[in-house]
Amino acid sequence: xxKAEAMVSAQTRRGRIVSDLAxxxxxxxxxxxxxxxxxxxxxxxxxxxxxxxxxxxIVATNRGYVLSPSREPQVFTRRFKVHHxxxxxxxxxxxxxxxxxxxEDVMVNHRVYGKVTASLGxxxxxxxxxxxxxxxxxxSSLLMTVTSGYHFHLVSAESEEALDDIEKALSDKGYxxxxxxxxxx
Length: 185
Hints:
The chain has 185 residues and is of the alpha+beta class. 42% of the residues lie in helices and 23% in strands. The protein has helices spanning 3-23, 30-37, 41-53, 89-98, 125-137, 160-172; strands at residues 58-61, 64-67, 76-83, 102-110, 114-122, 150-157. The strands form two sheets. Strands 3-6-4-5 form a four-stranded antiparallel sheet. β4 and β5 (114-122) form a beta hairpin. The longest helix is centred in the N-terminal third of the chain and has 21 residues, at 3-23. The two termini are 20 Å apart.
């Protein structure tokens, strides 16, 4: 299994942990989660630590893990590397927001200028229409044009599952690009 596949399966596994905890009316033990997901209990402990670091309020009790109800909706983020032509921009953005994502920003990794990021905050088709009109009437170019169509989007959503769905849809449409080793840092 390659590094990218291992990363996806780890993200999927952590999403399943959160779903299982959210759907359970009793604590779930690390051993039970490990058995269900086909990994060691130590992997579950590490996953729980990463989930906590990402804002999940998971409490360890003497009977297992529980997900504390949150007063504020949780927001999960993931950065996607994508590649496409200008004519696919609207489809790419609509794919993300139609699956429950918000396109927080766009970033390019230019070989001379380094990382250049612009805030977007696109969360509806109306926002995308305004963005498209601003680009058209401002006679500006999309940021991705300086890197031959390669760019990154920070996407937020209410669940890891929504981010997984977005990732799959972008991949199915051929928009998802592989991270290069230096981009994973």
